[in-house]
Specification:
homodimer, about 500 residues, alpha/beta, 8-stranded parallel barrel, 16 helices, elongated
Amino acid sequence: AQRLLAVLLLLQPAAAVWPRPQVQRSPPGGGRCLLPPARFRFGHAAGSAVGPGCTVLEAAFQRYRALLFAAGRPTGEAGGGAAGGAGALFLWGTHVEKETVCGFPAGLETFSQLVGRDQNGTYYINKTEIVDFPRFPHRGLLLDTSRHYLPLRAILETLDVMAYNKFNVFHWHIVDDPSFPYESSTFPELSKQGAFNAMSHVYTAGDVRTVVEHARLCGIRVIVEFDTPGHTLSWGPGAPGLLTPCYSGKHPSGTYGPINPILNSTYQFVTSLFQEVSSVFPDFFLHLGGDEVDFTCWKSNPEIHAFMKQMGFGEDYRKLESFYIQRLLDIVSSLGKGSILWQEVFDNGVKLRPDSIIHVWKSSKPYMDEMADVTKAGYQALLSTPWYLNRISYGQDWMAAYQVEPLKFEGSAKQKDLVIGGEACMWGEYVDVTNLTPRLWPRAGAVAERLWSNASVRSLQDAYVRLAAFRCQLLGRGVQAQPLYVGYCENEFGGF
Amino acid sequence: AQRLLAVLLLLQPAAAVWPRPQVQRSPPGGGRCLLPPARFRFGHAAGSAVGPGCTVLEAAFQRYRALLFAAGRPTGEAGGGAAGGAGALFLWGTHVEKETVCGFPAGLETFSQLVGRDQNGTYYINKTEIVDFPRFPHRGLLLDTSRHYLPLRAILETLDVMAYNKFNVFHWHIVDDPSFPYESSTFPELSKQGAFNAMSHVYTAGDVRTVVEHARLCGIRVIVEFDTPGHTLSWGPGAPGLLTPCYSGKHPSGTYGPINPILNSTYQFVTSLFQEVSSVFPDFFLHLGGDEVDFTCWKSNPEIHAFMKQMGFGEDYRKLESFYIQRLLDIVSSLGKGSILWQEVFDNGVKLRPDSIIHVWKSSKPYMDEMADVTKAGYQALLSTPWYLNRISYGQDWMAAYQVEPLKFEGSAKQKDLVIGGEACMWGEYVDVTNLTPRLWPRAGAVAERLWSNASVRSLQDAYVRLAAFRCQLLGRGVQAQPLYVGYCENEFGGF
């Protein structure tokens, strides 16, 4: 699960790096290199297995060149000590694997954080040795574009800042009860009827391509979630017959519940939709949701009753849920995709495929018990419960997120290996484009470091200093990241 | 305390008004007037005691003309019913008093909120009768520019949005322990040594004039706070000898405490500083602070000991605090100014001038008991305890602020009359320019309506609908106000 970043910087920290590298030290004798913007360039080292023509790397060179020499960068202390000129940074990869290429942009990020600027405006980097790799392979951030629509540029900016934090998975909770902004080519009525506004509040096929490609160049996978069978109210108007009609006594009440699991037409619809989604979103995984299925409506419906009886489910609606999820899993599997599911699917005893990933989010039961149970059953686990960053509180609440230790549960080494990472979640009840960025950054950075850095990196004091400095760097890059506490950044009024 | 706004709009609500007017009704028969932007103008009614040449009013005409016909305004339902053309809004004042003139911009705000735009882009206003006046005369908002520096434009924008909410007092907590951004002409070293950055993080004399004048044109008074004798650490470097040296055993420890109250030089300094401040800030009132005086440092200092003994204060350091505050009150009074003080000054039994205003903020004792005690002693009271909007919590926390009833304490009618209003406070520990606006708006609107509207206006449901609509109007005016809950505004991607 842990890949070596093929970046060794023979240079030394001007600033502290966020998230903290696995190994970072000054070589004996120290020393400082200057980086003259006019001459500095990125290049490929002789003998590197990665060379020109790698689009991810070429794009990263361009991005980081711009970030390194941006006007808003903080100026630090006056330069001192012997300084040599560093005209170039050469990258050297041992082998061309997907992970190696993904690692390069992360290495450039580290490099960029080490570059300082003295009071004369001269760019420099202190000689530093860094060996780095992530602790967990899945370091995700969830955005919810159903409770409030987020314009494309807010998503793209978030992807940029995710990359600065070495997050590598964008979990796009794209639709839910309140609105359906995904413009489907197979079922265009879904967004026409289900978006807040079918013209201005939708993601077109082009928008989705832009997000996926922007993410790819940042070393980020996009895992889209189409949550079913609950959380689908906005699907109803554009997909007649899909949702379960709720009954009041003997008559339909006019309201609707979860997707109707007893009709063949439901599975035809789901197959067609996920067929499209599977090709639009290239990642191997789809997030299938499965959380918070309310049985009330199913219980009220006489046709569901009859079906339950026919299937021998008795009064156990979890069996009906299981029936739906298992068919869904088969459909998704037949499309060549892997599945991630919210924990209820596991809790309710749904029979899962062995490669399913269970996403732990509930707080009704201690989340560490759930992590133990999920991994004991042999499933891979993702942690989110302590990282619901939409749940704000007064003060430095990043600290609670930071202090989480994802492997602190009773279990074997094999179980621990099944924890592939976690996700910071920014649900959208109270968040839209007006407050997303300051609410997310630098708080989500706490989760980023917990998932990237060594388990032994736990000092709040050390983290505070580095996170505060990193936040000033974010301001310099034009990101409206909020302060940790009292103070200021020298460069803080560049972009605002 | 309550003044009639000399504005009667013979027109009717297209939208709900925030804060809710005292009386608002549709005249029999209803009807709608169109407002063609090319022809529409503001003017003075024949016989009005206010006429052309009133700068506040002319500025308000300009501002509201721009706001009325701004590109970002929401479009509403399609027009319908009989429509007449309204080419002008004429204002008519009964007499030229300060309050009348201040009332006009508030009336224009109400008018602007009533103007709708149909789907063809046509501006209209439904015929409405409004009688309006504020319930409390002091409707304040506190910003803290010491814990984080706020750039001038953030203050000016806040003043604009205050006016939209009919706030009329900007309480400028300009300096405190962390930094001293006020550039004093008498003591320039204070900001040179005490600002975060003496060049970029200061308010020059010109900046202050800009704030005061901008506020005046918005119908807002600026009450500046120079908090003493505590909360003055940032004053120390620029004013040698002002702060009390703390002792560790028999020797000075190198740290400093509150202002040193036993030296004549202290009172000379304070007199000169407040002389300057009194002329720079024209409002009759100064906020003198007086909160959270920590006696530890005073207790450690042998010279303070000797003074206490000489004065016969015994071990009662509240008497020393009282000694300082009374001299301060005399100084401020001799400068022709009135005083506002945080509640500790009252709680600690400092002898006050009868016209002092006590600002209630603590939660250690039920704030309504404090309101009762302050007014029973005959002092005017301002409420802030339940309106510390920096203290965020998850969910719709504006509701708690809204449900406060400032007069819900045991006391006589005379006591209730001494409650002149309250202030929403946005302390700066975790707030700077990156998150100020979404954290403040529309949450502070809850306080604005509580202080403006009739005591009977208490329905959360009604408030939710109006506040959500008002927030969409704020977006249309380019204000980054955060959402109340799930949903969207048609116009929300204008400015962001």
